[in-house]
Amino acid sequence: MAATRTAKNPTAHNDSPNTPDVREGAIAKMKVAELRQKLRTHGVKDTAELKKPELVQRLIKAEVAATKKGSTAKKSTKSTAAKKSSPAKRSGKNPTSGNDTPNTPDVSESAIAAMKADGLRRKLRGHGVKDTADLKKPELVKKLIKAEVAATKKSPAAKKSTKSTAATKSTAAKKSSPAKRSGKNPTSGNDTPNTPDVSESAIAAMKADDLRRRLRGHGVKGTGELKKPELVQRLIKIETAGTKKKAAKK
Asked: pTM value?
């Protein structure tokens, strides 16, 4: 038999079937002190003068309201999640969505759109764009996307062009002209092809002390004041002369 309402029990089991989480019967069985304490958790004050029937009704009302509010919040969360999963639409505050330029994967339009105005201005200054103080966020976003896309497209092409030009120049230089002499490297390759036993490049790569020691082996003295280029030339000259002398004897 269903419970009936009385002065002490102002509700019968569940008067609000659409809120199954609120059990009116259980609330009606609570003690007065418990009812007041529960009401305080809902932000309801000044319950000291209220009697049990009024406390019960107030708590049921507060619990039902909280349950409905929670249900609305859940629906709102689901709706927000659905919006996030679907492609974002453009708006004044978000002038871009996803990636409007798929050929430039390094430029994330959505990330740029999420930046703050100050960050956008700072980034634009890095691209050499000035006079952005009066621009609003949508304009800043568009300008930065345009600048980033231009920089991305320019960078790979410029790198390829630079590499190609450098490689062409290097190849042409090697093919067309012999290596030039310098102060530190007074010889390059083999300046005396008729003396294959004398490697000028190997001599030029030697240290000054080694050159002096080698010259002393050829009976050359007084090399202490000579610098490396002079030592190299002397040793090449002596080694070349020695090689030609041996060849003449044969």
From this structure: 0.28
